[in-house]
């Protein structure tokens, strides 16, 4: 352990010596003007107030090049009044715009369309923020920004009220936004916020930003915002409480149970969500009898590994400021994962009520407190879940974090986790290093219950590299987290044993950036990664060594090559393909080779193709994935995806053809009415699934959902279950 922390301190000192700071918040300042004139958000912007507002008329290249002014001219103005921040953008082009979708909250549809985005850091701490964007068709995306290991991430699952309109003209398009103060969390005594504006120009496949900063960092990076200067601190928003009641009804039939054979079961339900602004920077979320029937269906995958696969959280109650709880641990080792609450083996467990207090307690401290009570099912007893987390900023961008997690069963059983982490981020953002230490315990009070480690990274315009070391004890169990490698399932005895491990993971990437205007490529270069897992006695559990080369073309095409070597010492008999004979304990060495291609995303029809071939444990594995996408701009997108894997193990251990099929259809009747359908077939899970959802946002943040789902077996399409749900929500400001 001393060695690991010595390494961490070495990298920390190294970063202080060699990274340089670039402070765009001092170099770029914009004074926002107050208006007493009513602003009509209509995309016309004919109010006199706009003529007197200061104008930003220079955008800088950011990707694929980060030097010089952007070729496409962009102009931005901002205003504010008692209730809203207003943003006006005039974006010049030749009139040939790409609009991938009209559906809101479609991230790919945003970045792959002509788009405009505003990002805000109201606390001016470079730790968190807000994202508001629209594409040229008017489709909205709002998101929360957070920092993880020095990188700015955004969570588009956050949903809140704001307004925008888009109008198109022959040589430009206009975006007008109104962002309510009550939608934001901010310090009502502060006169400087972080802000940046990002434009995506799909004709040239270029992205530009107001501030100029290195291409190694994403355009929404919190560290490289400019300053939004207020003439007076914005007042605390009026209206402290928002109520969101819902009414839901469903008809359901489970054909695999006796009740299903007798017909459909009908039900009706009501519930309530509430948002309470405790202060302008601290928010209380309450939920009583929540309903998540309108959440997106998980995308089916083929799993040929020994461990469980991570699926993201999609339920709104857990999302706002969710990074306060989730940004702990390393890759595939998460002390807290909210999806473990209210779900058991993929089946819903009723949540009776929940409360979350999140936000800034002080300008430099973010806190999160959550309590959730679940009900009982035939397989699960009622449980109470509590989580407490705090993030204290130190230095200019670094954070000390702490978390405590508790599950309390009604019979006195419990599970607890706690941990401390220090994440150092250099002011330039080029270097980051994290040191962590966590413990887990339950009523058995077992030893070997620690998890500690370090990880970090460095980047510049050509080099990206990183490292991670994690040490996990065999009794570091995270009932409310995600740590799949701890558990090893014996396919012969049908028992699961725990096994601690040490993980090493360095990686390196180099990017060439051709400067010639005639070059077909934007970026190309090699990458390599190495992952090793050791048993607690120092012997090898598993290792992987990969090398690849990537080509990113100016016309948005991508081409990638990969070769990976694997070595695994199976600790227990393992069945990977569901056949009668399990692979025995022993040493296995094998390789995988793959090619991945994406065609021009801007075209009405685009394709994806990957080819794979190699050895696999004591046999071989070959396969391919293909996708065909068709866009009828801007109202519809349709896609067909097919994934095939042929696994042939040594004689006596079986072979299998695994098929995964997905048909997608997305129809946008307007920016407020959408119909999405997915039909999925997974031969490994022996399941056909139909998911169809209609959504009508009849008022801001108020929705009507109609959701239809079907599940079938693969033998003769025998139906398993069927459900039809309607749900209506209403956003009520108090």
Automatic annotation (TrEMBL):
One of its GO terms (molecular function) is hydrolase activity, hydrolyzing O-glycosyl compounds. Gene3D superfamilies: 2.60.40.1190. Residues 242-347 form the DUF5916 domain. It comes from Roseivirga spongicola. One of its GO terms (biological process) is carbohydrate catabolic process. Residues 41-211 form the Carbohydrate-binding domain. This is Uncharacterized protein. It comes from the Bacteria.
């Amino acid at each position: 352990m001393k060695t690991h922390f010595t390494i961490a301190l070495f990298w920390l000192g190294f970063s202080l010596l060699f990274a340089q700071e670039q402070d765009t918040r001092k170099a770029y300042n914009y004074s926002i003007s107050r208006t007493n004139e009513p602003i009509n958000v209509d995309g016309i912007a004919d109010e006199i107030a706009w003529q007197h507002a200061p104008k930003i008329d220079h955008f800088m290249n950011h990707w694929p090049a980060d030097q010089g002014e952007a070729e496409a001219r962009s102009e931005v103005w901002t205003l504010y009044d008692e209730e809203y921040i207003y943003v006006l953008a005039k974006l010049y082009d030749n009139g040939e715009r790409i609009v991938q979708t009209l559906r809101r909250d479609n991230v790919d549809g945003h970045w792959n369309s002509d788009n405009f985005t505003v990002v805000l850091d109201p606390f001016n701490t470079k730790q968190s923020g807000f994202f508001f964007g629209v594409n040229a068709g008017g489709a909205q995306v709002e998101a929360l920004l957070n920092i993880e290991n020095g990188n700015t991430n955004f969570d588009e699952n956050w949903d809140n009220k704001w307004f925008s309109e888009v109008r198109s003209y022959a040589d430009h398009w206009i975006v007008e936004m109104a962002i309510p103060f009550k939608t934001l969390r901010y310090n009502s005594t502060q006169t400087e916020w972080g802000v940046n504006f990002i434009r995506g120009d799909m004709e040239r496949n270029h992205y530009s930003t107001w501030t100029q900063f290195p291409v190694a960092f994403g355009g929404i990076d919190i560290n490289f915002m400019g300053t939004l200067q207020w003439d007076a601190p914005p007042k605390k928003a009026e209206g402290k409480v928002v109520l969101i009641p819902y009414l839901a009804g469903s008809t359901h039939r489970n054909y695999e149970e006796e009740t299903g054979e007798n017909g459909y079961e009908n039900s009706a339900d009501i519930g309530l969500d509430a948002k309470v602004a405790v202060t302008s920077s601290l928010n209380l979320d309450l939920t009583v009898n929540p309903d998540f029937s309108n959440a997106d269906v998980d995308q089916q995958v083929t799993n040929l590994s020994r461990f469980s696969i991570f699926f993201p959280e999609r339920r709104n109650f857990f999302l706002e400021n969710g990074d306060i709880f989730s940004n702990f641990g390393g890759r595939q080792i998460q002390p807290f994962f909210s999806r473990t609450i209210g779900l058991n083996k993929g089946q819903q467990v009723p949540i009776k009520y929940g409360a979350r207090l999140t936000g800034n307690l002080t300008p430099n401290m973010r806190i999160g407190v959550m309590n959730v009570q679940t009900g009982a099912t035939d397989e699960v007893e009622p449980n109470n879940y509590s989580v407490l987390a705090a993030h204290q900023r130190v230095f200019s961008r670094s954070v000390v974090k702490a978390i405590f997690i508790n599950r309390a069963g009604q019979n006195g059983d419990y599970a607890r986790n706690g941990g401390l982490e220090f994440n150092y981020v250099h002011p330039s953002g080029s270097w980051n290093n994290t040191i962590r230490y966590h413990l887990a315990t339950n009523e058995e009070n077992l030893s070997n219950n620690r998890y500690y480690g370090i990880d970090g990274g460095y980047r510049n315009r050509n080099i990206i590299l990183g490292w991670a070391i994690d040490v996990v004890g065999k009794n570091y169990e995270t009932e409310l987290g995600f740590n799949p490698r701890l558990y090893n399932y014996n396919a012969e005895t049908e028992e699961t044993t725990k096994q601690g491990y040490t993980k090493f993971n360095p990686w390196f990437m180099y990017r060439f950036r051709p400067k010639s205007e005639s070059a077909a490529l934007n970026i190309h270069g090699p990458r390599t990664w190495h992952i090793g897992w050791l048993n607690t006695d120092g012997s090898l559990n598993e290792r992987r060594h990969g090398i690849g080369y990537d080509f990113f073309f100016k016309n948005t095409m991508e081409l990638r090559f990969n070769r990976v070597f694997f070595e695994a010492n199976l600790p227990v008999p393992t069945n990977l393909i569901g056949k009668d004979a399990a692979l025995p304990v022993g040493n296995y060495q094998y390789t995988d080779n793959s090619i991945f291609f994406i065609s021009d995303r801007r075209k009405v029809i685009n394709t994806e193709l990957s080819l794979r071939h190699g050895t696999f444990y004591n046999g071989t594995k070959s396969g391919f994935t293909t996708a065909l996408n068709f866009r009828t701009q801007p109202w519809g997108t349709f896609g067909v995806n097919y994934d095939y894997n042929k696994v042939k193990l040594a004689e006596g251990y079986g072979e299998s053809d695994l098929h995964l099929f997905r048909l997608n259809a997305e129809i946008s009747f307007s920016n407020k009415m959408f119909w999405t359908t997915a039909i999925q077939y997974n031969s490994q899970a022996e399941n056909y699934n139909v998911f169809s959802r209609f959504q009508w946002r009849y008022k801001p943040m108020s929705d009507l959902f109609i959701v239809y789902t079907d599940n079938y077996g693969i033998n003769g399409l025998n139906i398993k279950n069927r459900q039809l749900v309607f749900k209506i929500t209403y956003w009520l400001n108090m």
